[in-house]
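Why does residue order matter? Because the sequence determines the fold. Keep that principle in mind as you read this record.
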Amino acid sequence: MTSLLTLRAGPAAVAHLREHGGLRADHIDIVPGASGGAKWIGIGGLDRYLFGHLLQRPRSHPLHLIGSSIGSWRMASLAQRDPVAALARGHEAYIYRQRYSPKPDAREVSDVLSRALDYLLGAEGVHEILSHPTFRVHVITAESRGLASSARRPLLATAMALAAAANIVTRRSLAWQMKRTIFHSAGDDSPFLHLRDLPTVHRALTPENLRAALLASGSIPLLMEGVRIPGAPGLHWDGGVTDYHLDLDYGPGPGLVLYAHFYDHVVPGWFDKSLPWRRAGAANFSRTLLIAPSPAFLASLPGKRLPDRRDFFDFSEAERMTRWQTILDASTALGDELHELIETGRLVDAIVP
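Structure:
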């Protein structure tokens, strides 16, 4: 049978899985969530299995969750008391509650997605995330610097153009316009305190700033408004600008990094999407198990691809909703296949090193 999943793992992850006879929840140290907008719809069934089943098994140590943009919304769902219900609210809001005028401005897009975030969080989401006994949430935003601090569209557009041009030479140039900020609930135990690849600031997640940080983490420059986060300077933008697919140093911990992703490759930053030579290498992923939809699964979907922001322009509202719901329903098979691989002990055999 053709597999619906692509599984890739670094050498330390392969060795760990072979030594322990498969994947155990208590051996997972970190769960990353990438930027990707509507693409989270396409792995919804995989998330339902991971969030509602595998990652709910007993743990002896904290699990660190880190996300940028829609990845941070996924991690916020996982850290709620009922993560499957939170995911369902998020999917419903993203599919059916994104309704826009023919030419929405940044304020309208921000307002619509702000209400979608509120629906995902529900009445108790903020409290549940911050009080979770074992899950520690990390939310990445891009704190503005220089021209990127302006709310005026021409200046912001100039800042983004300069950032994109300089990024072709080196990712470190992003520091001229943006500073990676990680809001988290892990305190001094965060495994990301050592990051030095880009200027990085760590701030505590609090009841006052969690919602704003989540909104900022998905606020695409020029499409949405920047967000001012209580207790943090400047405007904050989409965390995917600096960390699109989270090509981070995950450290030398004893356990695994479990990465449910949209693709079988990792693009470091938002401006790297159009740079085919700018793909993550193996260095940061030695202990990572990456799980993504296979080409066979993608070929079975409407349009043979995951949902995308351009669907708002290519299809009527009704057609977009129907396509996205169809893809969400189909994604249940991803979770079913992973469950079978784990329970039958065949997971290691399905992995590509």
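The CA atoms of residues 316 and 327 lie 17 Å apart.
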